[in-house]
User: Fold this.
Amino acid sequence: MRGVSLNVDEGAITCITGPNGAGKTTLFKTIMGLHIPYHGSIIFYDEDITVKPPRYRVMKGIAMSPDYRGIYANLTVKDNILLPLMTLGVPRSVREERLAEILKVFPELFTLLDRSGTQTSGGQQKMIAIARALILKPKLLLLDEPFEGLALPVQRRLQNILMEIRDTMRCTLLIAEPTISPLKGLCDHVFKIDRGVVYRG
Amino acid sequence: MLALRKYDIYAYAVFILLLLLLPIVAPRWIEFLVIIALVYAIMVLGLIPLSGLGGLITFGNGAFMALSAYTIGLATRHLGLDSLAPILIPALVTPVITALLISLVVLRTRYVFFALATLAFTMLLYTLLLKLYFYTGGTDGLRIPNLFLLKGVLDLKVRDRVLGDAYTSYYLTVIVFALVLFATQRLVNSPFALSLATLRDNERRAKMIGINPLTTYSLAFTYSALTAGLAGILYALSVGHIDPGLAYWTGPSAKIVFIVILGGFSISGCILASFLYILAETYALKYLSYYWQFIMGSILLIILLASPKGLLGLLEAFIKIRNLRAYFSLRR
Amino acid sequence: MVIEVKTLLTIIVNALVYTAILSLIAVGLNLILGVLRILNLAHGIVMALGAYLALSLTTLALERVGSIGSSLLQGALIVIALFLSGLLGGLLFAVITGYLMVRKLIHYEAIYVLLITYSIALIMEDVIKFIWGPKGYVIYGIYPLFGTLEIAGITYPGYYFILLTTAFVVIASTYIFIDYTSIGKIVKAVASDRETAIMLGVRADMAYFIAFTIGCVLTGIGGAFTAPLLTLQPGFSLEFLLLAFIVVVITGLGEIRGIPIVALIISLLRAITITYVPELEMAIPFLLMMFVLAFRPQGLFGGR
Assistant:
């Protein structure tokens, strides 16, 4: 990656598009802390978090839904969603509360709660991954290719969910997609990334 | 690092020459030390394709060493064998065939599982050698008598003193070492090596371009068994006594793994590491024979903890030494 | 060849006892294997530590407590002593080694850590030899405390029952912990997909350490409760370790569910083999392992 300079507006939906291999996932991983950049810095609400571990960033309010879903087969859907809260030591009652809140946004997950994480369709797994990131009530939500592999009606559903999140949860969204089409009407700002360079689109 | 450079051959040739000339100047105990070091070096070189290039660490090669050694041992004990030549092929074939057979099963696993399976195999052999004491002599082991090289044709025995007062088997060992060195060099620079490396990096992609993991790994595995078999024969001939400990997991099986990693999986690194290890172990055994494991374990641990970059730190050190040696051998 | 009921019964009882021990060791091993993905070559040492500590603690307990009178109380005390030694042995090893290893494991290659376990195994073998000496120990005084059980005309030491119960409780607790507590679930997540877990804010090194400690404690307890059963001498844990390895391979990497079942099969096979063809004691389980590997390399209970 070279020459990435990105200012993300709070409370808006910012979209990053670019071909595969352009560096979208690397960018997200760097923001999340899975990757430490050689040069440059990441400032989050006036704090330099460039070298902080992912856990620190999660506690500060950044959450990510990866491009590969990453749902655990050896945990139930419910546990999958609650996992980040468990790692932060959030007590049980609060966890149940948050789960109920999340289910309002993703009511289709309610019937899946007791299933094993992978006894679900690809689209459902995407929802679970997003719900899992969302349950932290993050200030910044990173979504890496959330629309990938989703059927059209499901895409539309997701678009509505994302807009709802932005409006009701005061959450900043950063979405990466290879093409702009699923993001039509969704983005407040658009950036393009190509071979590691970001520029306004 | 693994590429064949011109001065490599010269360096190795000089080394072999030095080894051949060594007995003239060195006392007997050094000669014996060198035999053991070379025996281990042979086994370690055999590990380079499988573990270095292919990335599969095996803990079972002591078993192949034991197989060939005991083939000779059983033949001398129960069949009255007194010459090396007739038993040579069987002693080599036994570990190779065994390797081929078990590789069909064991190579369906990878990494930790594979290490476990090979470890279980060598320990199985150990318990068999131990329990079937009627045939194998159990913990007492078997004595390998001073065999003729080729009875009737060459009236020379393996532990006869020849040039420079060294055993015949000393020169045998040096020759075999040279051969294995040469073979490993060729292997490591062949397309086969590339297949192994590709398998290690990404097995799925390797399969897609037509590399068969089973056959490739199996060959590498068998090569390591072959070298271990050679080592076993040389060991048996030179030391004159074998016991089930050869197959024990803290015996040669584990030592060669350590040596090969210490040597950074490079040929010269491994040769150097073998010599250093045998030196260290001999002194540990000599001065603190009762607690030698403690000494060796501590040294190993210190070396491991002291290289902050894991294997890379050691590797760099070895590369530097290797380049130094190559530099000195470049006669201009 | 007539198979007597008595022989059969003896075989079964012995196999059950062996299963209990083997399960403890194997679950410990598989937990470490499954979560940390390393082969702990010093695993036999953990068992030995538990056993030798049990030797010392129970000898101490038997001397001091001989005057209490109530055999039941004495028995209870001995059980506690055994349990504590296992716990202590496991914790000791886990803390010392774990600290050295776990941090390195996150950043460096697995082979490197494997070699560390190997060097620790070498060192600890001699340390144990140094502290307790090379001769064999037999712990007297434990069997009498627990009386005997008579089944179909053969008397068995009551201690067997204690062993079986303890193993059952410990393993069941482990299952419950892994499946029903938050920490357990986090450990499962790290075992399954470490990168994603880290992304979600999990502290992978803590998960590793927890899994490692539990694995060591289980093994330590297995070793401690084995101590009264046999002659303690350097290297006695080898046989258990090997069979535990085989059980782990057959069950599947990281799958702790099926271990008691596989352990039972192996123990039964072993008991039968020892009775009729003692030389092949190790060969049969090994062959079974090869057989399973040939047709189902991910293990009987392995998923992927």
The longest helix of chain A spans residues 152-169. Chains A and B do not touch (no CB pair under 8 Å).
